[in-house]
Amino acid sequence: MEWGRSTEGESVPVGDDRVPVGDDRVPVGDDRVPVGDDRVPVGDPSGGSGRVLVCDDTEQIRRLIRVNLELEGYEVVEAEDGQAALEILWDTTRPLPDVITLDAIMPRRDGWWTVSTIRADPRLAHIPIVMVTASVQNSDRLHAERAAVDGFVAKPFDPGELLALIGALAAGKSVGGGVEPAQPLP
Fold first, then answer.
1. Any idea what the CATH number is for the domain that residue 68 is in?
2. Lowest mean pLDDT among 2-6, 69-73, 161-165
3. Where in the sequence is the domain holding 5, given as residue range(s)?
4. CA triplet 137, 166, 145: central angle to 5 degrees?
5. What integer is the mean pLDDT of 1-11?
6. Which burial class, exposed, middle or buried, applies to 34 when counting CB atoms under 10 A from its CB (0-12, 13-18, 19+)?
7. d(Cα 98, Cα 87) in Å, to the nearest integer?
8. pLDDT at position 17
9. 17 vs 71, 73, 148, CA distance in Å?
10. Rounded to an integer, what distance in angstroms lies between the CA atom of residue 75 and that of residue 98?
11. If you count DSSP H runs as helices and E runs as strands, how many of each does the chain have, helices first?
12. Nearest by Cα to 151 from 137, 133, 138
């Protein structure tokens, strides 16, 4: 796998169909691709599309999700906790996301509170939500199911699986009933 630099200067993977862009030139094979302030498609443009709000209190997790989504053509907005996510969602000058990813445990407002607030708001209730969390007890899965979460991904996670889930939800597809049923506690 080749590596390039994002606009923030971190190393990011460079795939065959999209490359991160910034103020530098990013090597792709033997060619040099000029970069600017946006993503430059260099292959099949039929990758993902849409907007995703990524909410996690850990910057590295937000960056990992963001970079992978952007490589697939998604527009990504980040929030460091549930309160910041809701402020973004309530800003009527911004377009609504097609999918939201939320961590469960965050400062100020956690993911569970955020899910219930989103589901109670008629303007936001339709947006698919994926919990991306290290909280993977049966009770957490049951809580996610009861909160009408559309997907549940345990950390550490496979970025490809998360992308596939987000892609299906962004396309309006059902993901098999959402959250895996919780197993009964012993």
1. 3.40.50.2300
2. 2-6
3. 1-44
4. 35
5. 45
6. exposed
7. 16
8. 39
9. 8, 10, 34
10. 10
11. 5, 11
12. 133
CA–CA dist 120, 116 (Å, integer): 6
Q: What is the mean pLDDT of the chain?
A: 75
Whether residues 113 and 60 fall in one domain: yes
Q: Are residues 40 and 51 in the same domain?
A: no
Q: Are residues 40 and 77 in the same domain?
A: no
How many structural domains comprise the chain? 2
The answer to whether residue 105 sits within a structural domain is yes
pLDDT digits (tens, 9 = 90+) for 99-134: 999 999 898 898 899 999 999 999 999 999 999 988
Question: Is 28's pLDDT higher than 50?
Answer: no
Q: Are the beta carbons of 18 and 30 closer than 8 angstroms?
A: no
Query: Is residue 185 one of the residues assigned to a domain?
Result: no
Q: Are residues 97 and 148 in the same domain?
A: yes
User: Predicted confidence band at 48 (pLDDT cuts at 50, 70, 90)?
Assistant: low
Give the amino acid at 116: S
Distance from the first to the final alpha carbon of the chain: 44
- Residue 124 dihedral angles phi and psi, to the nearest 5°: -110, -20
